[in-house]
């Protein structure tokens, strides 16, 4: 049996490297303005983007250090040392007090921007949780509770953000409104299916196509238990997000600098070079993790039956409707479902992981990125008497893979272009 784990890990690493701020940011940065460069960054790659921006402006363009200011709010454990841009580590996926203060300071700095300044907004996935600024009449605890309810509901990220945008003073174009006197340039690394600018970090500097009515409909659709204050906020016309034509966007520019598709292509090239035929399922997959795993297992078993050597690759962002009380994330749940469906099938190995280095989890920098499975997994399952279905029923993929030794532990990667899933059929 050939060990495919080094190749699986190399495919994942290639996808991550293609989207790292050190690689993708500097080519898109603007020249020095007459005034200050005010850098406001949010998300899991925010600190890495801030470091790359400092290197560009301070070292390459020799900007006077006093003219570069900013705040980068990132997930706990994803910080880096910076020179001029302050790094704030904050809660994710459930926001915390550090994110609350970071967002207030960010809004204040945006409001200080003058006509000659450049407001440089750097976004990666995770920004929605990092920048937390509840609308008037809502407490921080109520906003946290809504976030938890949304995350457990199984709603896709676009729907989650629709609700969050209408309960926020920074999302849905409102950061642009705060800083509209300056030129605003937003450079974003996409972590959302189909790269919708209004969904990345909940679109703080772009028009929002969703409405308060959409948000109310989602609360009803998922039967979310929310406080009356939340319902009142979603009925208040003052909390409508910024729409196309708003003066906030008169001097605002938005550019994508890394996409999930490009990262998937980097992994595909490596798989091709290793001699595999490719089944490319696209970079925008959504759906319940265990259901998607069932579809992919069928493809793998069919290829195996036909004697084909294929690599089945996909990106996107799967969801988990939480019914149990275990730990895990969509990638681990997908891998666990695969393990049950492919049990004892030789010649098939797989990896499913989040490119930010943390799949679900409790917001710790040591959370697993995902998991790998192969013949050694099936052997361990048998020797330890592990029933994948029982763990799946309890949404407890982390415990299952901790027992088999198959968790993928990468630590923070400092970027985020969603999930990478690979099944190798030999």
TrEMBL record:
Superkingdom field: Bacteria
GO terms of molecular function: ATP binding; glycerate kinase activity
InterPro entries in UniProt: GK-like_C_sf (IPR037035), GK_N_sf (IPR038614), MOFRL (IPR007835), MOFRL_assoc_dom (IPR025286), MOFRL_protein (IPR039760)
Keyword Cytoplasm: no
One cellular-component annotation, GO: cytoplasm
Keyword field: ATP-binding, Kinase, Nucleotide-binding, Transferase
SUPFAM superfamilies, A to Z: GckA/TtuD-like
Domain MOFRL-associated stretches: 8-234
Pfam families: DUF4147, MOFRL
Domain MOFRL: 310-419
Protein name (Swiss-Prot/TrEMBL): Glycerate 2-kinase
Species of provenance: Bradyrhizobium canariense
